[in-house]
Amino acid sequence: CRMIVSTIAVSTIALLVSEFNEVELGQKHLEHALALDDNSIAAHYNLALSLLQHTQDFEIAKRHLERILEIDPENAEAHSELGKALFNIYNDREGAKEHFEHAARLAPDVANHRVNLATSLFLLADYEGAKLANEAALEINPEDAEAHARLGFLLGSHFNDYKGSRKHYELSIRYAPDYAAPRHNLALLLDRQFDELGLSEFHHSRAVELKPDDVEFVEQLALFLANRKGDFLSSRPYFERAVELDPNNLHRHLN
């Protein structure tokens, strides 16, 4: 009993230390907690997150998450974090999908697990599955801006449902006004499918304001101004900015 209490105490200290950005000290406390009790899920989990977020010790973090699932195979958060590590770091989309499926099954009221599952299904070319997973996320949380943005992209790119795509982009922006990606995608959609140039320009410009170093956003605004509005004078600084951001792209130089 005393050993378990000591593990909890060390884990708590480590979390408090982390709040003050003492990452290395926090990790040492968590390692000490695990030396006392290797079955401490809290210590494994918090150490894994610290390794992933702060020191990029991905392989060690992965082992801690796998250890949690040895102790508790139905730990939804460990499945979710392991899925994200496999997806983002190891490019193991199939493995990530399996862990996201477990997380969604074990925690059916958490929308983010469904969004992560939808992303992995999309990149595995299971577009119907991705659509269903995003829709399930929105049933759980109708104000999930990420789910709206991803569903908007999916409907427009693979189902030719441009009205549905527009609706979900607009909802994403409503719930997250500073989320640049759906604004950028909505701008392209309004231009190409609805011929609403004024509104398209507004969202192009706002996306660039929100993410001025995103070369795609900057270049697409330049192309829109030059090709769709014939405003070459206004487009020039955006082309120049795109070249600054990506000087190796010949296409941008030619423009």
Question: How would you describe what is shown here?
Answer:
The structure is a single chain. By secondary structure, this protein is an all-alpha fold. Helices cover 80% and strands 0% of the residues. It contains 15 helices and no strands. Helix 1 (2-19) packs parallel to helix 3 (41-55) and helix 9 runs parallel beside helix 11. It is globular and about 70 Å long.
In percent terms, what proportion of residues is strand?
Answer: under 5%
Which consecutive residue ranges, at least 5 long each, have pLDDT under 50?
Answer: none
Radius of gyration, rounded? Answer: 22 Å
End-to-end Cα distance, whole Å, is 70 Å
Count the DSSP helices: 15
Alpha-beta classification:
mainly alpha
Sheet with most strands: none
Form type = globular
The average pLDDT score comes to 92
**How do the helices and strands follow one another from N- to C-terminus?**
HHHHHHHHHHHHHHH
Share of helical residues: over 70%
The total count of strands amounts to: 0
List keywords for this structure.
255 residues, mainly alpha, 80% helix
Summarize the topology.
Elements lengths: L1 H18 L3 H14 L4 H15 L2 H14 L4 H13 L4 H14 L4 H13 L3 H14 L4 H14 L3 H14 L4 H15 L2 H14 L4 H14 L3 H14 L4 H5 L1
